[in-house]
Write a structure and sequence with these properties.
Layout lengths: L9 H18 L8 E2 L4 H6 L7 H22 L5 E2 L20 E2 L21 E4 L7 H4 L13 H5 L6 H12 L6 H25 L7 E3 L22 H9 L3 E8 L1 H4 L14 E8 L5 E11 L4 E11 L3 E4 L3 E2 L8 E9 L2 E8 L15 E5 L2 E6 L3 E8 L5 E2 L4 E3 L2 E9 L5 E4 L7
Helix pairs in contact: 1-3, 7-8
């Protein structure tokens, strides 16, 4: 949708004032109301003389969004904050995308096709819009296609992708990150994992610089039709990988790893290597609760069959509303394409999160076949793996399964998952290993 600017004359102003009054009164007591925002991106485009071009249009913009609407908000909902635009640095066309003030919309990852590591170049104050596309679950696509349409570039598939360049962007990011998918179902899986990884990378970094960056908003939540999109929940309410990942990376107490390796230093493997790759990890704990958190990080440097090469334990006390980082841990004997780092966070002796990190692009990592199995036992599923497995996805034929956790990484061994909803027959499980094999 392109930004629009209404003319502000005496008649239209009176009509708009009545509409603002009605809607402010209607919405002002809603518990989810955080602030009133004048518009989406109009100030940014006006600053560039796009769509809002003439002196008259600029003056009408100031009149509407920086005088009339805030005046109405002060009159009918004085306790709620008003912000003139998103993105904005406070109004007046004063550098609306300034990273040091206000909020920004960041799209260089996705529209700009920058690597995920690009997020870490920025110290934004508030990221109010960023996103990444993925296909909806296969069962959703099957409701609007014939079997012969299940091809990324079929006419029907492109009709259900209303961003002209987006299918190509998905393919380009797959090329940056994963091996080429062996079939269409694997492409759908890969696109969803890619979306989850892209957004996770940004959110975890920006949460690690808490008190500089104070929030992130993902574009977007859900779909209004069966479509390839930025949403984390599709038209039928099915969760994409991103929605499960968001449960983890938006947890009130978060442990994440800020890694340094080939994937961050030399994402282009053909680039000239000016200096050697340093393999290291800094762990970060973000505590967004009101209580101090006494935590313990247990990490292990493992081979691809999950055998432990080195391990360690770090005790960290994190004050309320704080992010705290550990010292850098170096791995001088790390095998870039065969080893990974596994890490867990324990609070009061209870494991509250577990994840892993690679120091190479997943497409270059030597994944072993984990021989994943899944079986139902009462209200739980038991997943077993014989080796390291990344992006473990459990599904059923109907696509109606909702789990306490899904799309997760696991070491060799067993994991139990609570079933929230769905049919426990015709279960299947896959991981990154199955993208190409």
């Amino acid at each position: 949708m392109k930004p629009a600017m209404n003319s502000v004359d005496e008649k239209s102003e009176q009509n708009m004032r009545e509409e603002f009054r009605d809607n402010i009164i209607r919405i002002r007591n809603h518990p989810s109301l955080a602030l009133w925002c004048g518009n989406n991106e109009i100030e940014e485009f006006a600053a560039k003389n796009q769509w809002v071009k003439t002196p008259k249009q600029h003056s009408e913009y100031i009149s509407l969004f920086e005088y009339i609407i805030p005046h109405m908000v002060r009159q009918y909902d004085p306790q709620t904050f008003y912000w003139p635009s998103s993105s904005s640095s406070g109004g007046g066309f004063d550098d609306p995308q300034d990273p040091s003030r206000g909020d920004v919309h960041y799209w260089d990852v996705w529209h700009g096709e920058k690597p995920f590591s690009d997020y870490r170049k920025y110290y934004f104050r508030y990221v109010s819009e960023f996103g990444f596309q993925a296909y909806p679950p296969l069962q959703t696509l099957q409701t609007v296609t014939l079997p012969e349409d299940l091809n990324a570039f079929s006419r029907i598939m492109e009709k259900h992708q209303r961003n002209a360049s987006a299918n190509g962007k998905i393919m380009k990011y797959i090329q940056q990150t994963f091996l080429y998918p062996k079939d269409f179902e694997s492409l759908v899986y890969t696109s969803q994992l890619l979306q989850a990884e892209a957004i996770r990378y940004g959110v975890e970094y920006w949460r690690s610089i808490r008190n500089c960056c104070m929030g992130t908003i993902i574009w977007s939540l859900n779909d209004c039709w069966p479509v390839i999109s930025w949403a984390s929940i599709d038209y039928y309410g099915r969760w994409k990988a991103l929605h499960y990942a968001a449960k983890r990376f938006f947890a009130p107490v978060l442990l994440n790893a800020l890694e340094t390796g080939e994937n961050t230093i030399y994402p282009d493997i053909n680039a000239e290597r000016i200096f050697p790759v340093k393999n290291s990890v800094v762990f970060n704990i973000t505590n967004d609760t009101r209580e101090e958190v006494n935590s313990e990080i247990i990490w292990s440097h493992r081979s691809n069959d999950s055998q432990i090469r080195h391990q360690g334990k770090i005790t960290v006390t994190v004050p309320p509303f704080t992010a705290k980082q550990t010292d850098e841990i170096l791995f001088p004997d790390f095998s870039t394409y065969d080893d990974y780092i596994s890490f867990s966070l324990f609070v009061e002796g209870k494991e509250i999160s577990h994840s892993s990190v690679l120091l190479s692009a997943p497409k270059h990592f030597h994944f072993l076949n984990p021989y994943l199995t899944v079986q139902a036992e009462g209200e739980e599923l038991i997943v077993r793996s014989e080796a390291y497995a990344k992006g473990v996805f459990i599904d059923n034929e109907k696509g109606d399964l909702k789990l306490e956790d899904n799309w997760f990484d696991m070491d060799a061994g067993e994991k139990r998952i609570k079933v929230l909803r769905g049919t426990l027959s015709n279960l299947n499980v896959r991981s990154v290993y199955n993208i190409a094999y």
